[in-house]
Protein: tRNA-dihydrouridine(20a/20b) synthase [NAD(P)+]-like
Organism: Gymnodraco acuticeps
Amino acid sequence: METSNHNSRIMDMFEKGKVLKICAPMVRYSKLAFRSLVRKYNCDICFTPMIVADDFMRSVKARDSEFTTNASDRPLIVQFAAHDAQTLADSACVVAPFSDGVDLNCGCPQRWATSAGYGACLINKPELVKDMVTHVRNQVDNPNYTASIKIRIHKDLRQTVDLCQKAESAGVSWITVHGRTAEERHQTVHYDAIKLIKDSVSIPVIANGDIKYLRDVESIHQLTGVDGMFKLPLKMTLQWTVVALFLYVEMGILVILCLPFISARRWQSIFQLRIWSCVSKFWNKVFLTMIIILIVLFLDAVREVRKYSAKDLGSDAKLQPNMFDHLHMKLFRAQRNLYISGFAVFLWLVMKRVVTLINQLASASGSTAALQLQADNANQAAKKYTEDNELLKKTLMEGKGDKATAEGMELLRKQVEKMKEELKTSEDAVKKSQSEADVMKKQTDGLAREYDRLLREHQELQNLQDGETKKDD
């Protein structure tokens, strides 16, 4: 931490009549480097990420890790999560020389925070909030040092107004209002509730929730009359960028697989490379995993489309025309995500089917080629036999007298002799096989007799041994 003698009075900034642009505290984002960046774009006030006061006071390592600043990092508000007045006051005294104020987080809806007594659960404890603001005011020596709170609203706005008025009586510098209840996440912000709180107190009120563009600042200011805006930098979602990239990869692969000048048998030879045999071991698991991921994203996109398609703007639509654009933008993004995830699932299934069909087509093509070769060989043999038969018939029909008969008989005699030779060869083979079978039979009979003899000798020895054993007894 670096000490600075800069003691600018932040409350004077509210009295100049302009709407302040304030960078909201974001976990892991609102560190020194990020704050230095947003200050270059006319950000009036910056907040640190939420710091747990108990850990901050307990550990020097935590203080050095969670809070860093420099001389140009002003005006700066340090936001704490606390459930004890003295711990919050001690933390404020530690950071007071390096900052311009502290902010008590009474709006964090995360379960871990509310279960530990931090965040949004404090809006139901107005006396504790009042006590914590009073302790900070009394124990920080700098009179210009601010003590503010950030809250969410109740379903019963009377409770929220009561909380704000009690905090005002304790000397709170300003109140930041996130226009949703602790249970709401992405629902439309209740700007009418922020306006009601602004009209109920005399201290500055800062609006928070769905302020993503500079044009939103002016429209919400006209709607609520607040003194400042918490603006969250718009972040692109990584998962949909990955899904879109995956969709383009699928489209590219399908185009390559459908190229007409690459045959199915060529693709099959590519699929049979060693690298694919290694990948095939995990293919089914990868395929099912991607199907599950894409279906989950598809269902999430369906939920978003249904949510923003059924929005009822009510009376706020007349007061805030930009709300239409904002909801239509969210609906457009939800529909875009729906199309991306839906086509990704569809093309993933199509790609698997195309690969299967290519393999089946290549196998069928190979079988057809083999059958065609066998048919060609059979046709050639039949053609040869037909030609020989026709030659013999022609010789017999065109020949005259004894000469034709002699030629025909000579040709038949040669064929008969050839068949006799083949028959003799077959008979010799049969006789040889018969003789070998007889030899094997004789050997088998000899082995059987020898086995019987050995068995009798073994039995005699066994009987002899049993007799000797009885004599010894």
